[in-house]
Design brief:
Layout: H1 5-9, E1 22-23, E2 26-27, H2 33-49, H3 53-65, E3 73-75, H4 77-83, E4 86-91, H5 101-114, E5 119-124, H6 128-140, E6 143-149, H7 150-155, H8 157-165, E7 169-173, H9 180-193, E8 198-200, H10 211-234, E9 240-244, H11 249-256, E10 264-270, H12 275-278, E11 280-284, E12 287-291, H13 316-323, E13 327-332, H14 334-348, H15 354-369, E14 377-382, H16 390-400
Parallel strand pairs: 4-14, 5-6, 5-8, 6-7, 9-10, 9-14, 10-13
Antiparallel strand pairs: 1-2, 3-4, 11-12
The chain binds pyridoxal-5'-phosphate.
The site of pyridoxal-5'-phosphate has 18 residues, from helix 11 and helix 15.
């Protein structure tokens, strides 16, 4: 497989936010006065270094020699026969740390160093972004503190230990519902008070401008590689490009490579966290986007089988892609996701992250309903590997007496 640097760097992507960081009516920068300067400083630095050949070379080299890129694209012979479509997986599960998150944290940690920052802070829900940030901090010699809700820290004690093992501090957050949204609030508050030394390494395509744009650019490596790889294999573009959506970073990065193709783009949310399917317009965490909220604007908790999709909002670019009808967003139920998790494990020998299994759950459903026509070419981004989820799946299977 030849993936030369020019083909990766080719700018496939036609959509950029405007000068205020808005994708149509979504996005923007809704932050207190004290954070405006920090966001502006970051925006200027990102625009400078993302066009700087030395920076880009260091970023791509790290992702190659440390992160394991390019990741392969794998044809699923067995599953394709079962489903009636032709299915390929873009294998983010094979990166260092086992998910697409490494693409973003390496980019932001490098940028932080270029900006002269010595500390990283990050929020984390289940712990995956926290572990990825702690990894990048260890590699690049930055001090790191990760904010994590008390409820999550208890549920994910092993990830708390992983972060500590990697040399990071974990700050347990006891405000609100003690989960991801409270961890984001706390991390933003901390950023205000130490912005001279500290970069806030946000984990998805959310938050105030420039985060949604910057994180998508760092994740666009997924879609750009996949487009080139798929063309080499089939001499065509796929009919469908599918990815799961929590905050939306692996989907935004994947779609980035295919926006100017004919492919149908499908984002799959968790039914219990489906901000695009069931949400309404509002402002949270510095951005205007679709959110799960009650009539008074209180943010509702998101609940799903996969902690990585438990975010009550979604990145503004997705709200925009939905509005202009360039992408479609659907929701998958936990029970379908569990079946898809087992199906991929048994038919292809690949245990997917529960998050990624949402994408497959929709593909299975759409193939059986005829929405995806027989013989269609489908690419699914496998955002991560499922090792982290097997204990939980075992418990659910045992509890429900689920036959598999
Ligand atoms: C964090 C995570 C997600 C959800 O985040 P996005 O920003 O929506 O990509 C999905 N899959 C895996 C494996 C994750 O770790």
């Amino acid at each position: 497989m030849t993936l030369d640097k020019t083909s990766i760097d080719k700018n496939f992507y036609p959509i950029k936010p405007d000068s205020k960081g808005k994708f149509g009516q979504f996005g923007g920068r809704f932050v207190p006065e004290s954070l405006v300067n920090a966001c502006q400083e970051l925006e200027i630095a990102f625009n400078k270094y993302w066009n700087d050949e030395d920076f880009k070379k260091e970023y791509h080299d790290l992702l190659h020699y440390y992160g394991g890129r390019p990741t392969p694209i794998t044809y699923c012979q067995n599953l394709s026969e079962k489903l009636g479509c032709r299915l390929w997986l873009k294998r983010e599960d094979l990166t260092h740390t086992g998910s697409h998150k490494i693409n973003n944290v390496i980019g932001q940690a490098l940028l932080a160093k270029r900006m002269g920052k010595t500390h990283l802070i990050a929020e984390t829900g289940a712990g995956q972004h926290g572990v990825a940030t702690a990894t990048a901090a260890a590699l690049l010699g930055l001090k790191c503190k990760v904010y994590m809700g008390a409820t999550d820290a208890k549920r994910q004690a092993l990830n708390v230990f992983r972060m500590k093992l990697l040399g990071s501090e974990v700050e347990v957050v006891n405000s609100g519902s003690k989960t991801l949204k409270d961890a984001v609030n706390e991390a933003m508050r901390a950023w205000v008070s130490q912005v001279d030394t500290t970069h806030y390494c946000l984990g998805s395509v959310m938050g105030p401008h420039p985060f949604p744009f910057m994180v998508r650019e760092f994740q666009s490596i997924i879609g750009k590689e996949a487009r080139v790889q798929f063309k080499e294999l089939t001499n065509s573009d796929p009919d469908y490009v599918v990815a799961c959506v929590g905050g939306g970073s692996n989907a935004a990065g994947t779609f980035a490579g295919f926006l100017d193709s004919e492919a149908k783009l499908v984002g799959v949310e968790a039914a219990g966290g489906a901000a695009l399917s069931y949400g309404t317009l509002g402002v949270v965490h510095g951005m205007r986007s679709m959110l799960l909220q009650d009539e008074s604007g209180q943010i509702n908790e998101a609940h799903s089988i996969s902690a990585g999709l438990d975010y009550p909002g979604v990145g503004p670019e997705h709200a925009y892609l939905q509005e202009i009808k360039r992408a479609t967003y659907v929701a998958a139920e936990d029970s379908q996701v569990l079946k898809a998790f087992i199906l991929l494990s048994k038919t292809e020998g690949i245990i997917p992250a529960l998050e990624s299994a949402h994408g497959l759950a929709w593909i299975v459903k759409a193939c059986s309903s005829g929405e995806i026509k027989k013989g269609s070419l489908v690419v699914l981004t496998l955002s991560g590997r499922g090792d982290k989820d097997v204990q939980q799946v075992l418990e659910i299977i045992e509890e429900k007496g689920y036959a598999f």
